[in-house]
Amino acid sequence: MESAGPLKIYFLPFFAQGHQIPLVQLARLIAARGHHVTIVTTPANAQLFQKTIHDDIVSGHHIRVRLIKFPNTHLGLPEGVENLVSATTSATAGKIHMAAHLIQSEVEAALKESPPDVFIPDILFTWSKDLCKSLQIPRLVFNPISIFDVCMIQAIKAHPEAFLSDSGPYQIPGLPHPLTLPVKPSPGFAALTESLLEGEEGSHGVIVNSFAELDAEYTQHYENLTGRKVWHVGPSSLMVEQSVKKPAIVNETRHESLTWLDSKEKDSVLYVCFGSLSLLSDKQLYELATALDASGHSFILVVHRKNKEEEEEEKWLPEGFEEKIGKEKRGMLIRGWAPQPSILSHPAVGGFLTHCGWNAVAEAISAGVPMVTMPGFSDQYYNEKLITEVHGFGVEVGAAEWSISPYEGKKEVVSGERIEEAVKRLMDKGEEGEKIRKKAREMQEKAWRAVGEGGSSHNSLTALLDHLKPLLPK
Ligand code: UDP
Question: Which is nearest to 197 in space by CA: 100, 130, 145, 123?
């Protein structure tokens, strides 16, 4: 452990898997370095990560959960609906976002009851800025999107003249690389991000699930622009894997997809998943399934249909699709939660058709898997650019339409032909695909170096904890 005594740190993850998973991983990393960690959350959210921290507690790490109430009754939400992963409409999602404001007094009580040395909330809890100021508790902000995205958002805001035309592609000026966007971003998204970034003011900096080598020029750009410090502590799933010791596993069941992958050749399978929130329209799923079949490659397709009737109807499946791919032993459907990091790390997986959620990108890089990009909503359109135009470790499908919401599928559909062509460009083992694969492997090496002893993310976490050391009570 770097600092003199253990720091007492409270974390407050936002109620969505893409936010909660990496912040809980950060809490686990800090607990593994001997500090005393408390995750403040609501009962159903705690259940989602209870199993992962259980092992750490068994290993003797100081990690505890301080439960607060979720305002279900006040919001008219059913018991247990406390995370965006259970939302199927924007209305329910809106209520969960509202809950993030309503819990303020509960969090305040938890902070007053036993004040921590440092508080690390998700960036969405904008009220934490004033609360921590009044309680005089030092604060760092966790931002689950990438610094590259923030730079894109700022550049787009600064250059409205770049979006005068009705159709794309649009050139984005003012950034370290010449970049283009196929669709026009919604002004609402920029405004939202702007207000979030204000929440970083007065903090000891912003923590991101990334590593310096991935967005170095953009970090410099961001620090110059905002005057705030960025702490790269990632890829967090890889850091946890490398540095948090696990107790011996007893009879852990292996997911059937991993056994299925065992029978496949190296780099031969495309893994397809659109994250924990995106609900694709039936039409879009149909185009996607048809494209996967037509590509001739093996695949695992994850489909989240949260609604019981939808699950039973399966209107989107092309006729005979499941029987055909089963008979040819070429495809597998996962309905519901997939063990994504384990699937990506399987040697048989040679490509990832992704919605470009930031965690998905970090996990793919960690596994050295090149991507086929098909962004779903908000920051994902920017992540696509980092993958394809900045680093070249992915093939772009793009989007037909900009959306700020993962629900109520888009009106415009990306055609099956467009998806099929991109999949073939990566998976056909041609010159272009192999070049992209090589770049993904090179970035993986950089990520592994970053999380290892003496690597940039490892050192950044040490520096962060050293920076916080003077905050310990004398
Ligand atoms: N995830 C998973 N299984 C699934 C879907 C998602 O393990 O079936 C995990 C994924 O590995 C990632 C997180 O959920 O850690 C999703 O975050 P991301 O930023 O990729 O996308 P979001 O869900 O926020 O759109």
Answer: 123
Which atom number of ligand 1 is nearest to the Cα of residue 406? 25
The answer to whether the CB of 19 falls within 8 A of the CB of 13 is yes
pLDDT digits over 249-281, tens only?
A: 555 689 999 999 999 999 999 999 999 999 898
Give the total residue count for the chain.
474
For the CA of 21, the nearest atom of ligand 1: 15
Q: Is pLDDT at 306 greater than 60 in this prediction?
A: no
Tokens representing 66 are 């301080």
In CATH terms, the fold of domain 256-446 is Rossmann fold (3.40.50)
> Which residue out of 56, 117, 122, 215 is catalytically annotated?
122
- The token duo for 332 is 């597998």
Say how far residue 338 (Cα) sits from the centre of its chain: 15
Distance CA(210)–CA(197), nearest Å, equals 18
Q: Two tokens at 233? A: 């502590």
pLDDT digits (tens, 9 = 90+) for 329-370: 999 999 999 999 999 999 999 999 999 999 999 999 999 999
Domain boundaries of the chain, sorted by first residue:
8-247+448-471, 256-446
Is the whole-model pTM more than 0.90? yes
- Whether residue 207 is predicted with pLDDT greater than 60 in this model: the reply is yes
What is 8-247+448-471's CATH number, 3.40.50.2000, 3.30.565.10, 3.20.20.100, 3.20.20.150?
3.40.50.2000
